[in-house]
Amino acid sequence: MPNVVVLGSANLDFTVAVDRLPTVGETVLGREFYQSFGGKGANQAVAASRAGAQVVLLTMLGTDEYGRRIEQHLTALGLPREGLQRHPTKPTGVALILVDAGGRNLIAVAPGSNQMLSLEDVRRSSPLIARGAVLLAQLEVPLAAVQEAFSIAKAQGLLTILNPAPASPLPSALLKLVDVLTPNEGEASTLSGMSDPDEAARVLIEQGARTVIVTLGERGALLRDATTARLFPACPVQAIDSTAAGDAFNGALACSLAEGRSLEGAIVFANAAGALATTKRGAQESIPMRAEIDRLCRESPVAP
Fold first, then answer.
1. Band of the pLDDT at 81, cuts 50, 70, 90?
2. Mapping DSSP to helix (H, G, I), strand (E, B) and coil, where does residue 67 land?
3. In the chain, where are the structural domains located?
């Protein structure tokens, strides 16, 4: 039985490592090119699985070679085929990524079949959702599908986590279904109109979210509820590529909460997962295993 259900995208990523990110209209010569498996939904499903959860991913692939490769990859990692749907005409999503020497990135996504996940597809998956303890979703699939999944999840008593990436306006009806909202600093600012992370989190709570965790990269994560705020420092590591660090955080957070850990303990665990993901290149290739996360939690000077 799954204890984490992830609704979201699955892509094939094409990444070029560069010394520095280009400006508008500029061409820079890259150092390495590599292909990897990505998409925020698939990344977070893999992250939750590697952190120790039983996971089902609800996603829409194409019937093309990329879709077949992704399905083979995910099932080889232990994710079940149920939930991996296929669209008959749309191609599988792809992402184009530039990563500089400092680990910063620029990403463009052609969503393809991910944008074809419909309300009917989600409703057909309601028995899978009902079997979970936590539902985690992002915004690389249609917003209506996310809201429908959250409505089903809340009716079945699941804890809901929304990673609002990429940032887009969120209807209050959806925010009221969110137990934990996990924007990064830029997404929090875009969604709230506030540049300060704590003020941004306050606005998002006023709009309906129960709890907000703003991820702050090397500064850690800010937890805000209706009455209090707390900063959780990041685990110190040598970062080389920030791709999928946020996905590692969210997947580990979902796993930890599904296990019954407190929100504070889950953030410490998730911070360690996100930090470890920055120490390797690629998306899913960089996502750490449970033993690595536990070890960093024990060794980190910021662990409680």
1. very high
2. helix
3. 4-11+39-89+113-299
Q: What Cα–Cα distance (Å) separates residue 152 from each residue in 123, 275, 281?
A: 8, 33, 36
Q: How far are the Cα atoms of 2, 66, 261 from residue 137, in angstroms, in the given order?
A: 15, 22, 20
Q: Are 182 and 253 in contact (CB under 8 A)?
A: yes
Q: What is the pTM of this model?
A: 0.92
Query: Bridge partners of 214?
Result: 222
Strand partners, 4: 55, 134
Is domain 4-11+39-89+113-299 in CATH 3.40.1190.20, yes or no?
Answer: yes
pLDDT at 109 over 90: no
Amino acid at 253: L
Amino acid at 92: T
pLDDT band at 142 (very low <50, low <70, confident <90, very high): very high
Helix H or strand E encompassing 273: helix 263-277
Place of tokens 């979970």: 132
Residues 61 and 277: their CA atoms lie apart, in Å, by: 25
Confidence band of 122 (pLDDT split at 50, 70, 90):
very high
Average pLDDT over residues 49-66: 98
Amino acid at 184: N
Q: Containing H/E element for 189?
A: helix 185-192
Among residues 212, 122, 123, the alpha carbon closest in space to that of 175 is found at: 212
pLDDT in tens, 181-195: 999 999 999 999 999
Active site residues: 247
Task: Give yes or no for a cis peptide into 111 (omega within 30° of 0).
Answer: no
**In a 10 Å sphere around its CB, with 0-12 CB exposed, 13-18 middle and 19+ buried, how is residue 16 labelled?**
middle
Provide mean pLDDT across the span 79-93. 96
